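Rather than argue in generalities, we have chosen a single entry, letters for residues, whole numbers for local backbone shapes, without further comment.
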Amino acid sequence: MADYTDIRATVGGSDSNSYVTGEEADTFAELQSWETAWTDKTESERTIALINACRWLESIDFGGTRCDPSSDDDDLPQARVWPRSDVACDGISATCELIPQAIKDAQILIAYNLAMDPEMITGPGGGAGSGAAAGTYVSKNQLGDLVQEFSAFPSGESSKNDCVTCSTPDVLAKLPWLKGYLSCWIGTAFGRSRVIARVRS
């Protein structure tokens, strides 16, 4: 069973799986209206929610450049997309020695929502947002000779999985207030048109 010892929150670490510790999340929750709902969850449930929240947070395109190498091994890259450099927000410049507080707070807020509803983002049968048209999902991927197939959700389910736009990360489609919360850390990276080339190797 998972617990807070499974959370690795070393800044820039080669095996980090979170930007915050369990204790930091609990301290943040102490000043929220939902503290009781959070602490009523088991430590295992909170741990899983925090680790998954970090993964979902990393589906967002952030400004700047990922720091390299990791802070604990010069031969390995850092495991997470933060810390970053070459980006600033509200007068604060990102450095390779810190995680911006807004990033840490956003992870905790996503984790709270996931703890309350673990399928909030994925929904039944997966979700759109990975190149699929609204109402469909990627049903097959293949790297060699590059094959990608899309399937429609069963009748009646597509409306539950429509994306805001299909380039919108699922976490932002489900929690749109995050865009304002993260503000200029994502800046023009979110919402700008991107063309992803699919190249046959």
The two ends are 42 Å apart (CA to CA). Residues 125-130, 155-164, 189-201 have pLDDT under 50 and may be disordered. Residues 4-122+169-189 form one domain.
